[in-house]
């Protein structure tokens, strides 16, 4: 594991591809396009919105499913429209306000496990219980409610994701107890 100790804020930033450059400037790096942009602290929240765009699409799709009585065409259409709107907002409005940087190579990434090790153990415990509660609620909602198969499998996917996160965070806490 990396020997670099990071603050919780720096760990959160690296999860959304924001690095500290020279003179402690925040740099947003897009690995697929290999482009870097200098950003200010106020832009970080908007980059987070863009980074979590798939969750926004899933949320809009689920809401459209509930509102339209599971009309598949409208559900998928609402999800695609949400994706197009978020992408357009980011590319046409936000990315143009950032200052592009040339010849930026990001520092070596600190791994997912290491970023959680750098966080407070109380924060990790809160996340464990939160993901466990989400998993339990998803399973209970899937079995108690008399829903269509698509909704049932969606709830099971949410539960599986929550249990996966719980497993990772419990592993992090076990590493912490071993003294790493």
Q: How many helices does DSSP assign?
A: 7
What class, by secondary structure content?
Answer: alpha+beta
Describe the strand arrangement of the main beta sheet, using strand numbers. 1-2-3-4
| Rg over C-alpha atoms, rounded to the nearest angstrom | 19 Å
Query: How much β-strand is present in the residues?
Result: 5-15%
- Intertermini distance: 9 Å
Low-confidence stretches: none
Order of helices and strands: HEEEHHHEHHH
Which keywords apply here?
180 residues; alpha+beta; 2 domains; four-stranded antiparallel sheet; 9% strand; flat
What does this structure look like?
The longest helix has 30 residues, at about 150-180. The mean pLDDT is about 80. The chain folds into two domains: about 1-105, no CATH class; about 120-180. The chain has helices spanning about 10-15, 45-50, 55-65, 70-95, 110-115, 120-145, 150-180; strands at about 20, 25-30, 35-40, 100. The relative contact order is 0.12. About 65% of the residues lie in helices and about 10% in strands. α3 (about 55-65) packs antiparallel against α4 and α6 runs antiparallel to α7 (about 150-180). It has seven helices and four strands. A four-stranded antiparallel β-sheet has the order 1-2-3-4. By secondary structure, the chain is of the alpha+beta class.
Provide a quick synopsis of the model.
This protein has helices at 8-15, 44-51, 53-67, 72-94, 112-117, 121-144, 149-178; strands spanning 18-20, 26-30, 35-39, 99-101. With 180 residues, the chain is of the alpha+beta class.
